[in-house]
């Protein structure tokens, strides 16, 4: 109740503040910019608080306190006053509008959800215009829905259809806690996070796999020492690369037939198996 009373008092004061004529506004802006006159700054901002309130009211459907929106708009108003250049002969309200809107929108993006959304200009345009465009496209004789609607919105705002669908799902409901209970029975309660399934390996499995991979690389590098230079070259290019070379390509490079390359490769693999078996019988399985 106290906050609502303070907000009403602030709104009444803003509405009662006198409008500034162009000449008076210019003089006040010059005094503030050149002399740092705080009284001039107060008169300029007080006269434009009704603009702040008007713009804040346009964002009230995002579920945030109106007083907070007005406060953020006032921050934008002060930023505009700090940057305003009266010599350009532009009305202060015209210049301040952008800063007020930007400050309010930034506040909404920071506080509307605990999950941070995109902060690019395209994502901000999608966030603040999706509901309006969706309402417009769903009305009339040629109303759109689903994929067709997403396509139209994506084209209008220059974003992907996937971004539109994702933002639409975010705006369709509030945040849900992973610790929120879904059911409760005799065995106890179950949280939302209990039903999240991950196909990723467990941490101990990842560590074990990493250690095994390092050991295999060490064993294989040691076994490769038994190969001749030509055998090593064939094994490296045929077996140890993502895109293994063909027998024909290697034969051309080495000046031998592809059948000869196959024979050398077979002999090299046998030598590797033998080298691995001499150290540990289980390691022969790593060469195939």
TrEMBL record:
Entry annotated with the keyword Transcription: yes
Residues covered by the RNA polymerase sigma-70 domain: 68-81
Gene3D superfamilies: 1.20.120.1810, 1.20.140.160
Keyword annotations: DNA-binding, Sigma factor, Transcription, Transcription regulation
Lineage top rank: taxon: Bacteria
Single GO BP term: DNA-templated transcription initiation
Family to which the UniProt record says this protein belongs: Belongs to the sigma-70 factor family.
Name by which UniProt lists this protein: RNA polymerase factor sigma-32
């Amino acid at each position: 109740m106290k906050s609502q009373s303070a907000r009403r008092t602030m709104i009444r004061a803003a509405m009662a503040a006198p409008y500034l004529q162009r000449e008076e506004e210019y003089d006040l802006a010059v005094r503030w910019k050149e002399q740092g006159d705080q009284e001039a700054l107060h008169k300029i901002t007080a006269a434009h608080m009704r603009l702040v309130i008007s713009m804040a009211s346009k964002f009230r459907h995002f579920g945030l306190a109106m007083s907070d929106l007005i406060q953020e708009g006032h921050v934008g108003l002060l930023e505009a006053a700090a940057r305003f250049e009266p010599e350009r002969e532009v009305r202060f309200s015209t210049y301040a509008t952008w800063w007020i809107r930007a400050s309010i929108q930034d506040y909404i993006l920071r506080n509307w959800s605990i999950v941070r959304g995109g902060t690019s200009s395209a994502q901000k345009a999608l966030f603040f215009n999706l509901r309006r465009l969706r309402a417009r496209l769903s009305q009339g004789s040629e109303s759109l829905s689903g994929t067709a609607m997403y396509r139209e919105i994506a084209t209008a705002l220059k974003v992907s259809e996937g971004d539109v669908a994702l933002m639409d799902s975010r705006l369709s409901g509030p945040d849900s806690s992973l610790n929120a209970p879904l059911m409760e029975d005799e065995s106890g309660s179950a949280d939302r996070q209990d039903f999240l399934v991950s196909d990723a390996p467990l941490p101990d499995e990842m560590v074990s796999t990493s250690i095994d991979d390092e050991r295999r690389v060490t064993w294989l590098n040691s076994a490769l020492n038994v190969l001749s230079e030509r055998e090593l070259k064939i094994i490296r290019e045929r077996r140890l690369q993502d895109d293994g070379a063909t027998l024909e390509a290697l034969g051309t490079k080495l000046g031998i037939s592809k059948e000869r390359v196959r024979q050398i490769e077979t002999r090299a693999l046998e030598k590797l198996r033998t080298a691995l078996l001499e150290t540990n019988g289980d390691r022969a399985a790593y060469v195939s």
